[in-house]
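Q: Could you write out the predicted structure for this multi-component system? I'm mainly interested in how the pieces pack against one another.
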Amino acid sequence: MRSTSLFYRRLASPLHAARATVGVAWVLSITTAAVLLYHPVVLAALFAGVLAAGAGAGVGRALLRALRLAAIVWVPIVLVNVLVSRDGLTVFARLGDLGPFGQGNLTVEAVVYGAVIALKVMLVVLVTTLASLAVDPDETLRLVRRVSFRSALTASLATRLIPVLAADAQRLAEAQRTRPGGAPGGARGRVALVRAVVAGSLDRAADVAATLEVRGFAGAGRSQRRRAPLSRHDLAFLASAVAVLALSILARAPWAAGGGAARFDAYPEIRAAFGLGTVAIAAALLAAIVLPFADRRGIEP
Amino acid sequence: MSAPLLSFRGVGYRYPGAAEPALQDVHLDIHPGEFCLLAGLSGHGKSTLLRAACALVPHFHGGTFAGSVTLAGLDTREHGPARLGEVAGVLFQDPETQLVMSTVRAELALGLESRGHGAATVARGVEEVALALGIDGLLDRSTHELSGGEQQRVALGAALVGRPQVVLLDEPTSQLDPVAGDELIGLLRRLNQEWEIAVVISEHRLERVLSAADRVIALERGRVACDGDPAAFLRWAAEAAPSLQTPAARLFELAGVPEVPAGVRQARSALRRAGLLGDPGTPASGSAGAGAAPPRTRPRGRRGHAPLALRVRGVWHELRDGPAILRGVDLAVAPGETIALMGRNGAGKSTLLRHAAGLLAPTRGRVESGGRVALLLQNPGDYFVHERAGEEAPAQALERAGLAWAAERNPRDLSGGERQRLALAIVTGGEEPALLALDEPTRGMDRAAKAALATELRARARAGTAVIVATHDPEFAAACAARAVLLADGRVIADGSSAELLAGGWYFATETARILGGAGGALLPEEGAEVLARRRPRAQDPLITGAPT
């Protein structure tokens, strides 16, 4: 089954089948890679890897929806960087004297660096979206509970209330459409609608609070660690996380074997390593991300 | 008798800001292993009594509390809901607000984890309760994907996971279809009999629970008006509160049969003893199973070229990346016709009504209407966006709904029945639509309010408005609709007169029809009494007595 919802659903996929600690570690390793690396080719490989992982987890369509939303940040990031950066040497447009801002020289380096930063931001958005779609939030919050039960449960409730309130808002809007003249129009109508949604959410919050009371939330104790053997998917994603981290460090560090195959400097001029090493690092990162999805044994919920 | 598990001593309670007390001078003792049914009209204190039993009243709701409630030796004035939750499981009306975690497994585990139980105890508790309730297949499902029946079972599981001594349930079947509702009651009875868990349940459809109950407690204006076994309650109801009578009891009263049956089985035995019903397995004369015409599966409606209020032609509703909710539905509705749309949760009833009202577009097929279609959705509160009822609907519509007096009131301060009438006034807008569609309008309504709504709908139909009601309540369907359409898995599987369709089933049948085996197409107690009256002089008729023919 494929998911288009932007909320977690238990699906038959290797990532869903892995425990939350492992899922979180895997996602953090990719996020770290996205933060550490700047080389466009390597970032593109990470990007392709995450999209492929989304498809492998059965949430590809939902991930693309999130990507469309995240793409909105691309233009402002590039634009702002081009306008504020003074470090590039290759000027492609001169805006003249901008008073307190100095000379308005727009450089190719600033455009490229802005695009790289936007790509990194979108990559982080994509990875966290994948985590919210495919890593069990209850299990994740259970990890936090050992530190603070109430904070974790509050976060869990907020997570749960988002789809519930979204459904409430949809129901309310639908009810307004059945009025003879349609939904109340204008700013006043919209304010009335928002007020009704808020009032409904308060009612719902009171009901949920009553449920929590009788479930013993007020006397919440410290939850205990669960012990379960590592599954094949736990092991695969752990190995993948370690590989992604190791490759990222290898790609950046000039002292490492391969000597910074993913080195990239935007300023003052664009200088990027590009050779077999770069391609090998990009391919290895892509493979490390995607390979755990190849084993589909024992993934049924 | 053992010491009481739950005791009320002179309990009185008033909600904050309320003019009238919700409970007054309540004295009750409930013992381990008892199955108690709380009866009473809406607003007469059933829910408050349950909330007082688990200490939500007064700890959560505030207000003024007098007297004492003791549960398993714990005084609710000293111990809050969290402590009492260890001995009492609670299930409220709306399952959606009782599911707070993302997956079923986490939901079941929450109560045990909250109380600091070890991982092994939690895992075992979850596994056992899931097996006991038959929800082990749902453990890894997301809670927001579950059907209404599944949600209610999971919420019941969450209430039972700590092995409570008593389970308190507030109208748990109000949002369930007849099949899921009967399953839930059967499950409670099994838990009660096998594990001696005391059950205290409030319910409007008394006929659904009465045969399982050991004891019935009726509340009137917050006071205990009757406390006895089901037979004693029915005798009291016949005298003092006819609107609480079950259809079976009403049938017997009208037919002049002196007994008071708690359920279909008792009623059939009593009628058999009186010579008014054949032996089990013998088809009753005129029953749906005895050669009566089977329900039609082809669309009905006015023949020829007369204008229709609604025509649905081969409508499909297929979700992208999901199942088909409607599969080639055909339906023709004539002006003035009254139709009950029935079927299990998820059969496609609500979706069909949304197509009729133009809220959804078919992925295949066509919907044509002969004028405006007014749709009343399940929750009347969804319509209220203003502070005054007068801003919600035109004065003429309020007048017609009998709510002219409430024009300056906040809609959310109105009673359940009044809110329903206001929502109806909003969607009709003071002008009669060609078709009035209602989606589960009787959720949480008591019998008196249902009767008033049925009368209102029949009046609108007489004035020429076609009425189509999606409902799980066969009694309400029989009271307001001449035609019934049964949906299953997005298809119309039966379409015929209510007398044909609601008389011949096990689940989608009224209590009267089930008692009489569908004889004469009688659905309501009044019709059933006529059937029995016709049988009296012919009591020796072999078909009736079950003698060999």
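A: Regarding packing and overall arrangement: Chain B is about 35% helix and 20% strand.
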